[in-house]
Amino acid sequence: MNELIDEFIFFLGTVKKYSEHTQSAYQADVCDFAHFYENYTSDYIDLTKLRDADTVCFRAFLADRQRRGLSHKSTARALSSIRGFYRFLENKYKIKNEAIGLISSPKAEKKISKAINPIDVENMQGAIRDIDAKEPWIAARDWALVMVLFGCGLRISEALSLTNQDIAGRPEILRIVGKGNKERLIPVLPVIWQAVDKYVSLRPFGNQPDDNLFRSVRGLPMSPRMAEKVIENLRNYLQLPDYVTPHALRHTFATSLLSNGADLRTLQELLGHSSLSTTQIYTKVNMADISNIYSNAHPRAKK
Fold first, then answer.
1. Is pLDDT above 50 for 303?
2. Which domain does 178 fall in, by range?
3. Is the pTM of the predicted complex or chain greater than 0.85?
4. Domain end: 76, 102, 128, which one?
5. Nearest to 18, CA basis, from 182, 224, 186, 183
6. At 137, which CATH number?
7. Which residues participate in catalysis according to the annotation?
8. Is the pLDDT of residue 291 over 60?
């Protein structure tokens, strides 16, 4: 079974060109199913056993995950990974399993993320100066990071993958490679370049064209956890809610544009969403704000 899983992951990386992160997620999901199936059958798993797995087996797997307290969203992803594994087996080994196609994915509850108050984002600049008062270049880096996330709506991985070459000449449009190696173009406001320029002028290392833009205290490329820690420190310093995270800055970028008249298709392009349905979550957020204002302001809403 381990050899089959290794072949599948190799296929995802070489043929499907999935990222290492995505490959790891698929591997974890399929291994989880393999471990369950071996216990379920009390036998070693081979191609024949995989072919003969029935709906009772798959539903037992879903029930087992529920008993372990795993979320519907996580289980839906795991079921998708297993379907992909079976498609791979069918294409390579002619192993066809009809039962996996009869299992419905559990519906994950859609949570509407919260946007950060723009005033709180502005207050982060002063907080950064206070927190990093002894290291001006670190203060400049942290504010530049906030501005890139909030001003361009980038994912944290996209912001941290920027190199000096990407920003050379202060282009009006940034070329971003996002999930699935999909490329998109993001306009950059002058105020963002001001923050980035100040950081670059103070940065003591990492000045080669191919070096990552954002650097750690030791001169290494900044990691996602380091970036999360920056926002966490700001959240604690300003006593902001727990939902204030690097992703919330991207979310605030999206809701701000939508509130000020941006259409969904444009927002989809800027965010790099492959599906418009993913972008439509922001209309729910905007409508939630409108409903809240209506309930508090309309004279007939109060009893």
1. no
2. 118-294
3. no
4. 102
5. 182
6. 1.10.443.10
7. 155, 179, 247, 250, 273, 282
8. no
Is 60 exceeded by the pLDDT of residue 297? no
For the chain, give the mean pLDDT: 85
Residue 58 included in any domain? yes
3-state secondary structure the chain: CHHHHHHHHHHHHHCCCCCHHHHHHHHHHHHHHHHHHHHHHCCCCCHHHHHHCCHHHHHHHHHHHHHCCCCHHHHHHHHHHHHHHHHHHHHHHCCCCCHHHHCCCCCCCCCCCCCCCHHHHHHHHHHHHHHCCCCHHHHHHHHHHHHHHHHHCCCHHHHHCCEHHHHCCCCCEEEEECHHHCEEEEECCHHHHHHHHHHHHHCCCCCCCCCECCECCCCCECCHHHHHHHHHHHHHHHCCCCCCCHHHHHHHHHHHHHHCCCCHHHHHHHHCCCCHHHHCHHHHHHHHHHHHHHHHHCHHHCC
Q: How many CB atoms lie within 10 A of CB 55?
A: 13
Q: What is the pLDDT of residues 133-186, one digit of tens each?
A: 889 999 999 999 999 998 888 989 999 999 999 998 888 888 888 777 788 888
Residues 187 and 189: their CA atoms lie apart, in Å, by 7
3-60 confidence digits (pLDDT tens):
889 999 999 999 988 888 889 999 999 999 999 999 888 888 888 888 988 999 999 9
- Residue type (1 letter), 75: T
d(CA 139, CA 128): 6
Compute CA distances 95 → 4, 5, 14, 35, 101, whole Å: 12, 14, 22, 20, 14
